[in-house]
C-alpha cells in the first residue's frame, strides 16, 4: 500500500494537470478497493452471493475484518502517508490556479476524495482545526468559484465539522457563518448551491456531540497537533475498543465541555446573519426530523 500511495503522492505533487489528475485517480482507486473489497473468507462465493454482497452498502464496522482497511487506517495515523493532508496541499495549489475549467474539475474531484478519506479515517478531520485548512474551504465558497465547486465545498465542510466541535469553533472564529450566509443571500449564488447551504444550516443547528479524547500514542511530530483525535464512530469496535486512553487538555486547549456549544447559543450567532430565518429552520428540524429526530 505504501508503494501505491507513493506513486499517487508523486503525481499529486506535480505542477502538471494531467499528472495531478492521474494522482487523484490513483487515490480514488485505492479508496474504492478498500470500500468494495469483500469480507475475507476462505470459501469460494457463488455468483449470486457475490452479486448480493456487491449490492450491500458497507459501514466502517463492516470493514473490521479487512486487512487492507486496517493497514490503510494505520498508515493514515502518521503524517507521511496521510492522504487528507496531501489532498489539501494539492487543493491549495489548484485553487491558486482556478478559473480554468480543467482545474475546476480537479478541484471538485479533490474535494470528493477529501470527503471519502475523512469518512474512512475520521481522525483526519482534526486537520481542519487549523485555520489555514478551514480557510481553504471557505475560500472555495466565494462567488468567483463555479457552482460545482461551491456545492462540493459545502458538503466537505459538513463532513469536516461532523462530530468535531473544535472544528466548529474554528469555523465560527474565521467568520464561516458570514461566508456561508453571504453566499446564501447572494443573487449570484445558484439554486443548487443555496439548497446545499440550506442543508448546512440545518446541520449547524443540530446538537453537538463531544469528540472522544485523543489517543495516547506515539506520533511523528511533523503530523501536527491532534491528528489522532477520535470522533464518535464505530472505530472503537473496529480496533477492539481498548487502548485509547483519554488525554487531559494541555495549555491552550479546552476540554469537550468547553468546546461544545448549545443549539440556543448557535441560534443567537446565526440570527446575526439571518434574522427571522433561524426560527423557521428550527421549526422544520422539529417537524420533519431530517437527521433522525436527534432534536426530539
Automatic annotation (TrEMBL):
<dbReference type="GO" id="GO:0051301">
    <property type="term" value="P:cell division"/>
</dbReference>
<dbReference type="InterPro" id="IPR012535">
    <property type="entry name" value="Cell_div_Cdc14"/>
</dbReference>
<protein>
    <submittedName>
        <fullName>Cell division control 14, SIN component</fullName>
    </submittedName>
</protein>
<feature type="region of interest" description="Disordered">
    <location>
        <begin position="239"/>
        <end position="261"/>
    </location>
</feature>
<keyword id="KW-0132">Cell division</keyword>
<dbReference type="Pfam" id="PF08045">
    <property type="entry name" value="CDC14"/>
</dbReference>
<keyword id="KW-0131">Cell cycle</keyword>
Amino acid at each position: 500500500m505504501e508503494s501505491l500511495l507513493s506513486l499517487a503522492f508523486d503525481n499529486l505533487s506535480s505542477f502538471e494537470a494531467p499528472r495531478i489528475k492521474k494522482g487523484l485517480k490513483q487515490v480514488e482507486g485505492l479508496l474504492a478497493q478498500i470500500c468494495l473489497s469483500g469480507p475475507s473468507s476462505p470459501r469460494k462465493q457463488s455468483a449470486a452471493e457475490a452479486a448480493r454482497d456487491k449490492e450491500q452498502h458497507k459501514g466502517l464496522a463492516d470493514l473490521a475484518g479487512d486487512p487492507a482497511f486496517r493497514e490503510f487506517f494505520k498508515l493514515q495515523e502518521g503524517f507521511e502517508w496521510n492522504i487528507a493532508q496531501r489532498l489539501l496541499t494539492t487543493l491549495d495549489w489548484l485553487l491558486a490556479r482556478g478559473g480554468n475549467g480543467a482545474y475546476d474539475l480537479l478541484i471538485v474531484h479533490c474535494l470528493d476524495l477529501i470527503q471519502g478519506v475523512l469518512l474512512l479515517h475520521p481522525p483526519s478531520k482534526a486537520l481542519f482545526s487549523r485555520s489555514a485548512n478551514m480557510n481553504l474551504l471557505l475560500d472555495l465558497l466565494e462567488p468567483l468559484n463555479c457552482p460545482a465547486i461551491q456545492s462540493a465545498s459545502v458538503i466537505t465542510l459538513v463532513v469536516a465539522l461532523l462530530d468535531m466541535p473544535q472544528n466548529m469553533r474554528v469555523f465560527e472564529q474565521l467568520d464561516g457563518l458570514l461566508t456561508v450566509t453571504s453566499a446564501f443571500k447572494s443573487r449570484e449564488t445558484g439554486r443548487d448551491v443555496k439548497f446545499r447551504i440550506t442543508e448546512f444550516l440545518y446541520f449547524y443547528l443540530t446538537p453537538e456531540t463531544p469528540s472522544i479524547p485523543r489517543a495516547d500514542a506515539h506520533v511523528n511530530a511533523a503530523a501536527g497537533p491532534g491528528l489522532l483525535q477520535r470522533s464518535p464512530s464505530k472505530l472503537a469496535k473496529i480496533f477492539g475498543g481498548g487502548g485509547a486512553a483519554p488525554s487531559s487538555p494541555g495549555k491552550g486547549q479546552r476540554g469537550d465541555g468547553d468546546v461544545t456549544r448549545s443549539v440556543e447559543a448557535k441560534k443567537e450567532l446565526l440570527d446575526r446573519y439571518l434574522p427571522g430565518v433561524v426560527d423557521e429552520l428550527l421549526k422544520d428540524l422539529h417537524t420533519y426530523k431530517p437527521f433522525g429526530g436527534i432534536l426530539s
